[in-house]
């Protein structure tokens, strides 16, 4: 049922969207990951224009998101389309399942919507150690079946297969890139996989995260995580490898993989960087200054086309990520929802020079909900015993990852802290009045409670908002509006739960 309701929402959305076609040539070959795990996703047409306006002509999707794919139709933007890990087993087990996947998720968008799909990324980091081998057996057969399905669909010349691999599939015993080799438990599989990719005209995709290296190891040399600024002396931690000095983690990491590939006679496979970036919040190392430093260094390298010592030409590099996603799992850490170069609404987080020295520009045409926030009542006591439950509840259904120590809202006093949580819930619930009624502890205000680095957000009006009407009598129609997609079903659930909370 959720799928049918979602389809309905898509129909409504498509009917409401005006056709926007961008045909101008891109400024430069920049590439980005467009994740869609947001409670209020930036509308597809606005996102596509944001990409174009900033010189991105390649995009990577983690799944065949219909809104994103339709918006990419006739945009001139090339697409790497993810086949999620969850479908690896079925696609590996049956050629027919692979064919169906390709027909519905690739052929349709290519022929019917004019989407320029160039790659199917089969799985996402399937050999990650923490998966404990769960996807190992299925990955290569899935790649083979998808390739066969692409051939059968007549798409094999345009669309190629790849697998995005986590950097933990290779290692170097002595820290020098030239000593790189595959993780022993996965070496045989990697060789077979890469050989197949080579034979079928595919590429290998690698995700590299100096941020995670820095964050995991208190002794990791900070400078080495970043690209050296021009003219600056190399980091103390630079690695001498024969005649080559490695001055940063990216170069060393990438070349460790290249050395591993060369060791197995696979040195000719193109290696794309599928994810690389720096988050701005939710962790002590995640802030605007660090992200700007890393990403500016990265974009300078991309624009200059300067690769690594072993691969002097910079490959395609998909920055992670385009936008913040406030509904991503926080298993890796609170920073996981803050990787965007842009905020959730397509506004830049910090200045960046992109292609041709042009400054980053914001999304255009974004519509917001009303200028109002939900806060702790001024006359409510901060020691009211109901507050803890209310905050816990608000944060369960909305994003409170900016409240942690060292994060952008980590310095709020107790009252403002509660207000932040209330407001996040209220915004997630499309500012419906019933969502600002925490046991009579909250009140709606039109005064922006933002302070210092802590921004009290106003959510995007994703269009669904119209369904609730903007009249003061919107509340009774909440249930009706909320049934229009699985997305608002969560909020409906939340609101039902809220009633329970209030009663209790
Ligand atoms: C299209 O892709 C989605 C996401 O992987 C999947 O759930 C769906 O089953 C696919 N369609 C077909 C016909 O396989
Ligand atoms: C603010 O809220 C968060 C999440 O509820 C909590 O972990 C933190 O301890 C709070 N800080 C203060 C100062 O109340
Ligand atoms: C809510 O609280 C305010 C003051 O804190 C009080 O005046 C009002 O009567 C309360 N309303 C309900 C329904 O309890
Ligand atoms: C948010 O994430 C949860 C957990 O993954 C999921 O069940 C829910 O459908 C997501 N909501 C939206 C709007 O994507």
UniProtKB/TrEMBL annotation:
One GO molecular-function entry: glucan endo-1,3-beta-D-glucosidase activity
SMART domains: X8
Domain of life according to the entry: Eukaryota
Gene3D superfamilies per UniProt: 1.20.58.1040, Glycosidases
Compartmental location: Cell membrane
Membrane topology: Lipid-anchor; GPI-anchor
BP GO terms, sorted: carbohydrate metabolic process; defense response
Annotated signal peptide: 1-17
Cross-referenced InterPro entries: GH, Glyco_hydro_17, Glyco_hydro_17_plant, X8
Keyword list, A-Z: Cell membrane, Disulfide bond, Glycoprotein, Glycosidase, GPI-anchor, Hydrolase, Lipoprotein, Membrane, Plant defense, Signal
Domain X8 as annotated: residue spans: 372-456
One Pfam family this sequence matches: Glyco_hydro_17
Cellular component GO terms, alphabetical: plasma membrane; side of membrane
Catalytic activity: Hydrolysis of (1->3)-beta-D-glucosidic linkages in (1->3)-beta-D-glucans
Main location group: membrane
EC number: 3.2.1.39
Family designation: Belongs to the glycosyl hydrolase 17 family.
Protein known as: glucan endo-1,3-beta-D-glucosidase
Taxonomic source organism: Miscanthus lutarioriparius
């Amino acid at each position: 049922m959720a799928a049918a309701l979602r389809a309905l929402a898509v129909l409504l959305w498509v009917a409401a969207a005006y056709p926007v076609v961008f045909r101008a040539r891109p400024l430069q070959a920049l590439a980005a990951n467009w994740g869609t795990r947001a409670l209020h996703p930036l509308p597809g047409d606005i996102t596509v224009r944001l990409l174009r306006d900033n010189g991105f002509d390649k995009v990577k999707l983690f799944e065949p998101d219909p809104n994103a794919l339709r918006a990419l139709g006739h945009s001139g933007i090339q697409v790497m389309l993810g086949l999620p890990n969850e479908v690896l087993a079925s696609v590996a087990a049956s050629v027919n399942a692979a064919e169906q996947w390709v027909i519905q998720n690739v052929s349709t968008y290519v022929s019917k919507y004019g989407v320029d799909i160039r790659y199917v990324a089969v799985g996402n980091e399937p050999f990650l150690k923490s998966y404990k081998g769960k996807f190992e057996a299925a990955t290569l057969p899935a790649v083979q079946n998808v390739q066969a399905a692409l051939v059968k669909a007549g798409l094999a010349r345009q669309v190629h297969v790849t697998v995005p691999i986590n950097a933990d599939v290779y290692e170097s015993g002595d820290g020098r890139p030239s000593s790189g080799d595959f993780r022993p438990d996965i070496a045989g599989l990697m060789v077979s996989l890469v050989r197949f990719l080579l034979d079928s005209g595919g590429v290998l995709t690698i995700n590299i995260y100096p941020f995670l290296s820095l964050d995991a190891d208190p002794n990791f040399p900070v400078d080495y995580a970043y690209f050296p600024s021009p003219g600056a002396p190399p980091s103390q931690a630079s690695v001498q490898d024969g005649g080559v000095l490695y001055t940063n983690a990216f170069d060393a990491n990438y070349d460790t993989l290249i050395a591993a590939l060369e060791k197995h006679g696979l040195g000719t496979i193109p290696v794309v960087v599928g994810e690389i970036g720096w988050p701005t919040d939710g962790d002590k190392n995640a802030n605007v200054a660090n992200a700007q430093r890393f990403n500016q260094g990265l974009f300078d390298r991309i624009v200059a086309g300067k690769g690594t010592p072993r691969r002097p030409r910079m490959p395609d590099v998909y920055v992670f990520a385009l936008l913040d996603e406030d509904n991503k799992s926080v298993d890796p850490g609170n920073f996981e929802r803050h990787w965007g170069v842009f905020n959730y609404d397509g506004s830049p987080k910090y200045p960046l020079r992109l292609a041709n020295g042009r400054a980053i520009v914001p999304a255009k045409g974004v519509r917001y909900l009303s200028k109002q926030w939900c806060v702790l009542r001024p006359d409510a006591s901060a020691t009211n015993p109901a507050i803890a439950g209310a905050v816990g509840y608000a944060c369960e259904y909305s994003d409170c990852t900016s409240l942690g120590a060292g994060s952008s809202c980590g310095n709020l006093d107790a009252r403002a802290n509660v207000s932040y949580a209330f407001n996040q819930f209220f915004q997630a619930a499309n500012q419906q009045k019933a969502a600002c009624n925490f046991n009579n502890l909250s009140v709606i205000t039109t005064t922006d409670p933002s302070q210092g680095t802590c921004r009290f957000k106003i959510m995007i009006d994703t269009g669904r908002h119209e369904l609730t009407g903007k009249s003061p009598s919107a509340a009774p129609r909440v249930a009706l509006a909320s049934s229009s997609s699985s997305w608002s079903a969560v909020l409906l659930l939340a609101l039902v739960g809220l009633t329970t909370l209030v009663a209790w």
